[in-house]
Write a structure and sequence with these properties.
The protein is an all-alpha fold. The protein contains 3 helices and no strands. The longest helix has 22 residues.
Length: 56
C-alpha cells in the first residue's frame, strides 16, 4: 500500500481540527500551528517509511 491510509488519516485529522477550531473560535495563530503539526508529522513519516515512493 502506498500513502492511501496515511493520507486518509491526515484528512480525518484535518477535518476534526477544522471543526474544533471553528467550534471553539480558537485564535488564528494557535489554530494554524495545531493544524500544521499533523501535516508535518505525516509528511515526515511518508519520507521515512516510503522513500522510494517520494524520492523517485
Amino acid at each position: 500500500m502506498a500513502h492511501g491510509p496515511l493520507i486518509s488519516v491526515l484528512g480525518v485529522l484535518t477535518m476534526a481540527n477544522a471543526f474544533a477550531g471553528l467550534r471553539i473560535r480558537a485564535p488564528l495563530l494557535a489554530f494554524g500551528v495545531i493544524d500544521a503539526m499533523p501535516k508535518l508529522g505525516v509528511g515526515v513519516v511518508m519520507l521515512i517509511v516510503h522513500p522510494a515512493l517520494t524520492c523517485g
